[in-house]
Amino acid sequence: MGNGIDLAGLRPYQPGDDVRYIDWNVTARMDEPWVRDYHEDRDLTAWFLLDISPSVDFGTVESERVKRTVLIDFVATMARLLTRRGNRVGAVLYGGSADRTIPVGGGRRQVLRLVNDLLADEPLDRAPMTDIGPMLAAAGAGIKRRSLVFVVSDFISEPGWEKPLSLLTRRHEVMAVRLTDPRETELPDAGPLVLQDAETGEQLYVDTGDQGFRERFRAAAQRREEGIGTAFRRAGVDALPLSTDDDLVRAIVRMAQLRRRRR
Questions:
Q1: What is the tens place of the pLDDT at every residue in 6-48?
Q2: Superfamily for 40-262?
Q3: Most buried of 32, 79, 98, 215 (most Cβ within 10 A)?
Q4: Cα(first)–Cα(last) distance of the chain, in Å?
């Protein structure tokens, strides 16, 4: 074609094609949309972008699990499912005692490395307010090959992360896994309590027996939920909620169903 572009695996866009598979570099040079054929689970590379900031160490007594435990269980299960089919997985750990990248690899040894590194990460007593935007932007710039990307976070972050998340979806298939706990949206009547911000360490004395306070807490939580939902919609990403009281297997089935519908 005389333009120096390798069009192997590419074809012109057709109505009904998934816009996530548009190759934007080729589209810009050809002056018309081109899409890259993507064969699921054929030499697939998957990345886990993991928010391990202090807020993931929150969990309630009833569930006896914290969000960090749910994160580790999810990574271990999904990494094993993927590597058993010959695919490779890697991870970016963000917000813990040391941000780092685990390069992609395959097999049982790679799964064990991911889990061991997560277990070895020392939770921080306090840290600046989490901002997952730089993690998403760095992943967008650093992951060259089209991949399946799991963003695992509670998305309790400085605002503005929806833009780098949206940019990430232009080149990769992205699944957002949102870690939650029931007590983040509704407090029980447990009398006077001292609440501590997991990231700043700031403490606040509250009376959960005060119905007005519980209603204000619920309203604030609702506003936060609406804001996060709006950000996901702007980014064009569906989020899978994964609570500390969820059954992991059922959650993964829901994720598979969600991915199938989007494809």
A1: 445 677 777 766 666 777 777 777 777 877 765 444 578 999 9
A2: von Willebrand factor, type A domain (3.40.50.410)
A3: 79
A4: 31
